[in-house]
Hints:
Chain A: InterPro entries: CBFA_NFYB_domain, DNA_Pol-Epsilon_Subunit, Histone-fold. By secondary structure, chain A is mostly helical.
Amino acid sequence: MAERPEDLNLPNAVITRIIKEALLDGVNISKEAQSVISCAASFFMLYARSCANNFEMKGKRKTLNDSDVLSTMEEMEFQRFVTPLKEALEAYRREQKGKKEASEQKKKDKDKKTDSGEQDKSRDEDNDEDEERLEEKEQNKEEEVDN
Amino acid sequence: MADVVVGKDKCGEQRLVSLPLSRIRVIMKSSPEVSSINQEALVLTAKATELFVQYLATYSYRHGSGKEKKALTYSDLSNTAEESETFQFLADILPKKILASKYLKMLKEKRGEEENNKDESEDDEAES
């Protein structure tokens, strides 16, 4: 749950970067404009959220899914977003699939190594893998903080 | 720059969105709707928000008066909210600015009008 007002805003650095890249080089963006765009972005998300809720209810679901978001964009007259969003979704799904296959392959390789008849060890390795994943996550968190 | 819309992931892999998903989830959860959001919907929302920021910035710049000075200002944004149907939902958070002196003048004029109306109706009553 958001406890501080800052939690309800997106990181300024990222917003500024997005704006700067969208506009040509050399365009100056006032601080006020930057902060107001950031507010507008949060507002956009909340507005989209409540709009998407209608589609979710129509589908009698309790979880917001990708089609709800796409329908919302059309509803809000942001049809221009639909194609790039669909592309992004495909890329994300491919990425997830790739990650899943990579971790499954890793597991298979490990199993092969320990296939010298020590079945108990493989159980431990499952735990190890979980631990590895946890460690990876923590490492990722640290790197995120560094960023 | 590859980092533009495709940010770098923690592992150094290219990520599809620059905005942090955890923060977006927090913002979405702060809304009154109680249902949860699946991961794909979250990624799409993040991407849509990026596209929105780009669109708002470029539209306001192109249609705004700051173009001559090569600057994007608050007034460019509030003009967009007022004039564009697509961005009209932002009108409440991007109100137009006026000078305080102008506002006070407007208030005075309004009060003046109300008093005039009151006098007229009193006169009418007196005559009848």
